[in-house]
Amino acid sequence: MAIVALGDLVNEIGEMVGGNRYCRANLPDCTGCVFCFLASWTVHCMIPAQQSAQFGEGFAEVPASIPLVNFYSLCMLVMLVLAVITGYERKHS
User: Fold this and answer.
1) Which end of the chain is less congested by CB atoms within 10 angstroms, N or C?
2) How far apart are CA 40 and CA 5, in angstroms?
């Protein structure tokens, strides 16, 4: 939903700074994937926390602790920030 809502804005800003169309397409996609899995109130964190609680008190997880062990999204966030800061693939060959 965020990709659809922000698509025109990202496209305009990307054209203004000289980013290629592939980069402009990947940034909202990656950002949507990263923050969707790192926000503790989303379904991706709430369902595992609820399911783990059914196995007893020792297995119960707080939804806010789940994003801290979601290594794929954390690594993707680091790569996204590095790509934006360094301008990696800003000009597509």
Assistant:
1) C
2) 22
Give the predicted TM-score (pTM) of the model: 0.59
Q: Give the whole-angstrom CA distance, residue 53 versus residue 4.
A: 35
| Alpha-carbon distance values, 57 to 26, 45, 60, 67, 85 (Å) | 41, 18, 5, 20, 43
How many residues does the structure list for the chain? 93
Q: Which two tokens stand for residue 15?
A: 């054209």
Rounded to whole angstroms, the Cα distance separating 52 from 78 reads 28
Q: Which pLDDT score is estimated for 40? A: 67
Q: Quote the tokens at residue 5.
A: 């809502």
Give the per-residue SS3 of 46-80: HHHHHHHHCCCHHHCCCHHHHHHHCHHHHHHHHHH
